[in-house]
Design goal:
The chain is built from 15 helices and twelve strands. The protein is α/β, with parallel strands linked by helices.
Length: 339
Amino acid sequence: MNDYIKNAKRIILIDLLYLGDLIFATPFIRNLRKKYPKAQIDMIVNSNFFDIMEENPYLDNIYAYNKKWSIKESWQFARRLRKNKYELGLNLHGNWRTALLLKVVNPDYSVGYGAKGRGVWLDQELSFVEDKHMVETYLKFLEDLGFEDFDDQGIELAISQEANENMISFLKDHDLDSQDKLIGLNTGGSWPTKQWTEEGFAELGDKLQNQLKAKVIFFGGPGDVERVNKIVSLMNTNPIIATGKTTLKELAALAEKCDLFISGDTGPVHVAAAVGTPTIALFGPSDENKYRPYGKKHQVIENGIECRPCGHHHCPLKHHNCLEKISADEILDQIIDNR
């Protein structure tokens, strides 16, 4: 370990990836703070997910970067951070955008993922680990810096008091109390191939309410409202709809109050896992070995089809059987078996 790493007092992290990736990075951030208890540790994140990181107790400052900014706006943003005179820069993302931003921020010493020529702007280029979960990949980053003895406390997410109070009121407004069994359903997905069928969610929602006597709450952002409305129109029971009605902080607070959270492989399922709620994640094209909800209380359902995981945003075989062939009964059986 060189002196730049060993003696750093001002550290900047950059990761502009998505919601789930930021959740996966929380053990990295916690362990980094343990290695540098007195340092200033700041982070640049995707502005879409700034709120979810704002309560992180291990960071001093969090800077929101908007991916829609022009080159001039991006340059001005990075130049402002350059005035902080960081001694160590850590690039967890490793694409061209983050490589350029970190170069302009100009820490004394920079470490991160390179490849495809991006390592030319790093003082120390690391190789991305392909066969580990993303949590373990990020911790390997710290190991490559020369640190040892990481905790095994897993992912975490702090819930703001205001968001918690808002969601308590939300549940009361829907005549729910602590005696009700709450099951969250998240229907969206960043890729079309990550989304389970509308008919499947409708059937599952009815079965959960009729057979398990649970209260179903639909989660999701504004972009999921139309899809959830279609699903609810196919149901015979009446679920609670939180879709498009919560901030990211409130989503975390509401997920924490659920007894179970069911979703495809997308950000909210990792939020639920981070606040301690058991999850069932439906996996299609993505690799559960790398992206499953992290921890022991979580289950993965995948149907073993030979062509998965393919990693494609649209099914190259035009059938999407990896998710469409998963049935509501299969999910229900999994819940019953693990009661």
